[in-house]
Design goal:
9 helices, four-stranded antiparallel β-sheet, alpha/beta, 13% strand, Aconitase, domain 4
């Protein structure tokens, strides 16, 4: 998983509340198990006409935001079903950070598994950042995970909170499996010490030859 340390990028304004996972990636595209390739279907029902043509008025189809890596939205982003494909589609499109007043719990957790930083801020600050985002490529913003700050185009800094363990995982580019494997020495040491203190456990757990 790619590390997330400091991101300076275009932010796309999405002034909508209750953006559910079916809007992020419609159910028609849930048959795949590969995380790549879903970016072209991100927000498919809002991005495309029935004939497949792009809708010129949707933000990610407009020239200023085609390469956006940040989304600024409103309350309860990622609600609905628990599909991890929503995070896959965002990441495959190129989105590294979503800023909103609140997130659905499962979507929030899935973001960290896929190298996406979800930032929860008061609604008033989200609306300010949305105004910045409306300027597109002329007003990039910076997300600094090390300092836990968002730097607005005018230089103003907005602090955000994130659980320390989640922060460290993103900084190191580790998903849950990677974080476990990074502690292999400690796990092996614990198991060896346990086997020494309680040898009968090792006998029970050792498969027959």
């Amino acid at each position: 998983m790619e590390k997330f340390v400091r991101l300076t990028a275009v932010a796309a304004p999405l002034p909508m509340a209750n953006v559910d996972t079916d809007m992020v990636i419609p159910k028609d595209y849930l048959k795949v198990t590969d995380r790549t390739g879903l970016g072209r279907h991100l927000f498919a029902e809002m991005r495309y006409e029935a004939n497949g043509a792009e809708r010129a008025d949707f933000v990610l189809n407009r020239p200023a935001w085609r390469k956006a890596e940040i989304i600024v939205a409103l309350d309860n982003f990622g609600c609905g079903s628990s599909r991890e494909h929503a995070a896959w589609a965002l990441r495959d499109f190129g989105i590294r950070c979503v800023i909103a007043p609140s997130f659905a719990d499962i979507f929030f957790n899935n973001c960290f598994k896929n190298g996406i930083l979800p930032v929860a801020l008061p609604k008033a600050q989200c609306l300010e950042l949305m105004k910045d985002a409306e300027h597109g490529a002329n007003a990039t913003m910076t997300i600094d995970l090390e300092t836990q700050e968002i730097v607005r185009p005018d230089g103003e800094r907005i602090a955000f909170e994130i659980e320390p363990f989640r922060r460290e995982r993103l900084l190191q580019g580790l998903d849950e499996i990677g974080a476990t494997l990074a502690r292999t020495d400690r796990i092996d040491g614990f198991e060896a010490a346990l086997a020494e203190r309680q040898p009968w456990r090792a006998e029970v757990l050792t498969p027959p030859q």
